[in-house]
Design a protein that fits this description.
Number of helices: 14
Radius of gyration: 19 Å
Largest sheet: none
Shape: globular
Oligomer: single chain
Number of strands: 0
Helix content: over 70%
């Protein structure tokens, strides 16, 4: 356990560097937005493309995709039910809080840890979890939250969700990468090296951005809801994904611990932005900070169990 903690500690120390740099005023917090955009729209795009298109000896695994999706959907549904029954939240609030439980920070935290611990398999699983989250989980959760609060506008919400999927740079990268992979189109050494070099920047910059974002986040006192989100994300989601990965036939054994790790990391960094329209921005920000802090211990515990 101690060895695993020391292995993942540099990951969290990089988050601390980002946090201290902004909180102390050493870096202007207004610069972080541009850095986050670079990570999300350039470095992670290159990483997704390279994970799918460049390694000709590996492939996206359909059983893994199905299992990870099933575990995430189960977390979303069960989280919603628990929030409604135990915390007595409204339906829109229930879906927003459940979104925080079921959607991982695959790009900014899952991949850096997975690449450090599992090597190349981390990039392959990263591409699949990002596909699940961006094609299904995030559009579905926002659609359900919006539909619960706006009767009679389901068609408009479906159109908006579809538009977000089609125009999402991450999904465009997945589509292009699949086309390149299936067609066997050679990219050439200069293009491949450029993509690989850009993708190498994803992990360290993403970790720095997480810390910087936490330094700017608002902290609320809604601890019952914050505790529910943190418990759902750090315990319920990895447990249900682990169950699905073991139950669904055809999942490669070597990918199972990597998938559990991705489910065990905290929620995505933009969760407060997604929750803000529903009046839950401060709750989501606090949940992000608490979950990221607790994950120092919980992710190490998960790795100790799966390795």
């Amino acid at each position: 356990m101690l060895d695993i903690f020391l292995t993942t500690l540099p990951i969290y120390l990089m988050i601390v560097v980002g946090f201290v740099s902004v909180r102390s005023g050493y870096l202007d917090g207004s610069l972080i937005g541009g850095l986050s955009q670079f990570t999300l729209k350039v470095a992670l795009i290159a990483l997704i493309f390279s994970a799918i298109a460049l390694p000709r000896d590996s492939a996206l695994n359909t059983p893994f995709l199905a299992a990870y999706l099933a575990g995430s959907l189960a977390t979303l549904a069960l989280g919603f039910a628990l929030v409604r029954l135990v915390l007595r939240q409204t339906a829109p609030e229930g879906w927003v809080l459940a979104m925080g439980m079921a959607c991982s920070n695959s790009g900014f935290l899952g991949f850096p840890i997975a690449s450090l611990v599992f090597g190349p398999e981390g990039a392959v699983v990263f591409a699949m979890t990002m596909t699940v989250e961006n094609v299904v989980m995030l559009p579905l959760a926002t659609l359900l939250a919006g539909a619960a609060g706006q009767s009679g506008r389901l068609g408009d919400l479906l159109v908006q969700a579809g538009r977000r999927i089609v125009t999402n740079p991450l999904m465009i990268a997945v589509t292009l990468a699949l086309l390149v992979r299936l067609s066997g189109l050679p990219l050439g050494a200069p293009i491949s090296r450029t993509i690989t070099t850009l993708s190498a920047a994803a992990a360290p910059v993403a970790l720095f951005v997480i810390g910087a974002a936490m330094a700017q986040a608002r902290v609320s006192g809604h601890w019952r809801r914050v505790g529910a989100i943190a418990l759902g994300k750090l315990a319920l989601h990895p447990a249900l994904v682990a169950l699905a990965l073991f139950v669904v036939p055809g999942v490669p054994p070597g990918l199972i611990p990597v998938g559990i790790l991705f489910a065990a990391v905290p929620m995505l960094t933009i969760y407060p932005l997604l929750a803000a329209p529903f009046g839950l921005g401060a709750v989501a920000s606090t949940a992000l900070i608490v979950s990221t802090g607790l994950s120092v211990l919980t992710v190490s515990a998960v790795l100790a169990l799966v390795l």
